[in-house]
Recover the amino acids of this structure.
């Protein structure tokens, strides 16, 4: 009898902050040690420390340097996304060239400096798309109100409409995932990130039902979250083994395959 | 593993994949849970709490397969609440009660809560205090319920020598001063359901030890696998793992039986 394909877990959403350790090297070693306990094969790491909501151009570079240092001994286990900001477009383009085109990183991370429906972000999106880099945009829908620069899923939909052939990732699915899934449902170039919310049951089932299994990416948002609570969303979900494998790793590998191939990174 | 934090019936804002008792029991068994303390979602908003508890006890008997232990709701702002507490103890033979101070509109410094604790302690009933049910940021806009401040429990427990409290769904961090104070109070146990962060139980045990930490899944609202996976992620010593998974609850129940004898 043939054995079912092995689950290969790739975690889309990891941070160095919140880990035990004092240096990027110590923090990364601690992160990998915990990932090993959970059978996680690869980690995507972005943003350094301390968390900076509206970082200066210098701070973006400093935090990307922290991640580059953290990755330096772990290229067989981890990739990085460059932290960029629409409040510093020229500096962000330089960081994309430095960290992705000329460095080991494979995507960009946009956080809460400015909402992503603002066309000021477009040069960053175009440059990342040229390099086939993954584009990750944090989103939340907070009942008490978002931060002024914090995007909602509908902001990402507006961005996707301006870049209809560019794959985009809806970070956290807006936190309020029932609204987030509905918001991005009709926008096929948006995939969702499961990370960084409580492990509320039904999230993954609704996402598979409404988006199909191929637009869903497992991520944790460690160290603020644990691998455990975020993996549980997928482990507990009443979905097929094939869908579970897709969400835990196949979909992210497919998204990153063009840039990894371009960089000569083996996929197996 | 003993799970101190599950619910039956329906969450008011969403159907949950495991909100049928038989499905919940099957999922808990798959995870190696041998006993689960079950409250009722109905206890959050229903005023006929006696009816809620009657249905809860019946559901645990009918569907529990010996695994579900009913934990009744008591709301000390309702008229004649001591009768609800008496029925939980004498008629349904529950080992404890569950309170939701935020959904029922009082703080822990309220004298009605003090009276409830007195009566629970007199009857050797465990009191489960639920800090929150969900992330405050994702609540229904018409039903926004802030979390309970558990800090007054330290003094409330100190004044009642036989009282035992289990704090559920507290988002305490390993370095929180309040976590240490609650643990040092001696008769407050804290569940794992809303403890978050990478390898959180490893860091909690390093900060305050394992003796007062108990497993809580908050299923079926939360994905039940999270409780077991948190233990796996923590990489604890075997003794700490066993204590959190089961031993601490057995000690808690043992001390209750000693008081009843």
């Amino acid at each position: 009898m043939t054995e079912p394909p092995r689950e290969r877990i790739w975690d889309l959403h990891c941070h160095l902050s919140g880990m035990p350790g004092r240096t990027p090297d110590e923090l990364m070693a601690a992160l990998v040690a915990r990932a090993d306990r959970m059978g996680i094969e690869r980690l995507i790491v972005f943003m350094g420390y301390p968390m900076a909501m509206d970082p200066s151009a210098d701070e973006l570079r400093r935090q990307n340097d922290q991640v580059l240092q953290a990755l330096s001994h772990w290229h067989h286990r981890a990739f990085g996304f460059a932290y960029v900001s629409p409040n510093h477009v020229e500096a962000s383009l330089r960081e994309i060239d430095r960290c992705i085109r000329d460095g080991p990183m494979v995507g960009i991370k946009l956080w809460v400096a400015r909402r992503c429906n603002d066309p000021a972000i477009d040069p960053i999106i175009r440059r990342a798309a040229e390099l086939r880099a993954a584009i990750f945009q944090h989103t939340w829908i907070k009942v008490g109100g978002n931060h002024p620069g914090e995007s909602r899923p509908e902001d990402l939909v507006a961005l996707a409409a301006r870049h209809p052939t560019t794959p985009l990732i809806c970070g956290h699915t807006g936190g309020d995932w029932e609204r987030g899934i509905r918001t991005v449902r009709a926008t096929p170039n948006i995939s969702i990130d499961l990370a960084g919310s409580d492990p509320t049951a039904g999230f993954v089932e609704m996402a598979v039902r409404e988006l199909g299994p191929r637009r869903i990416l497992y991520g944790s948002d460690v160290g603020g979250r644990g691998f455990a609570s975020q993996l549980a969303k997928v482990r507990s979900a009443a979905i097929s083994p094939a869908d579970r494998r897709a969400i835990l790793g196949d979909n992210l590998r497919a998204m990153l395959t063009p840039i990894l191939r371009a960089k000569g990174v083996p996929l197996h | 593993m003993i799970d101190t934090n599950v619910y039956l019936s329906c969450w008011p804002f969403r159907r949950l994949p495991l909100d049928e008792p038989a499905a919940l029991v099957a999922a808990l068994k798959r995870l190696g849970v041998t006993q689960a303390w079950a409250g009722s979602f109905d206890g959050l908003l229903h005023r006929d709490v006696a009816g809620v508890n009657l249905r809860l006890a019946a559901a645990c008997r009918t569907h529990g397969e010996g695994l579900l232990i009913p934990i009744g709701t008591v709301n000390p702002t309702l008229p004649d609440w001591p009768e609800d507490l008496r029925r939980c103890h004498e008629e349904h033979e529950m080992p404890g009660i569950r309170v939701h101070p935020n959904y029922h509109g009082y703080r822990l410094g309220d004298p009605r809560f003090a009276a409830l604790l007195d009566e629970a302690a007199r009857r050797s009933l465990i009191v489960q205090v639920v800090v929150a049910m969900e992330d405050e940021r994702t609540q229904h806009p018409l039903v926004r319920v802030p979390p309970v401040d558990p800090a007054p429990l330290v003094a409330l427990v100190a004044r009642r020598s036989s009282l035992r409290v289990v704090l559920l769904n507290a988002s305490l961090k390993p370095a929180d001063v309040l976590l240490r104070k609650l643990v040092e109070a001696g008769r407050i146990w804290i569940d794992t359901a809303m403890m978050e962060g990478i390898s959180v139980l490893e860091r909690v045990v390093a900060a305050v030890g394992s003796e007062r930490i108990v497993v809580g899944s908050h299923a079926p609202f939360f994905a039940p696998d999270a409780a077991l996976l948190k233990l796996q992620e923590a990489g604890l010593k075997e003794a700490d793992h066993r204590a959190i998974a089961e031993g601490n609850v057995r000690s808690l129940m043992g001390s209750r039986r000693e008081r009843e004898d």
The beta strands of chain B are 2-8, 35-40, 68-70, 72-73, 96-99, 126-130, 165-168, 188-191, 213-214. The two ends of chain B are 26 Å apart (CA to CA). The mean pLDDT of chain B is 96.
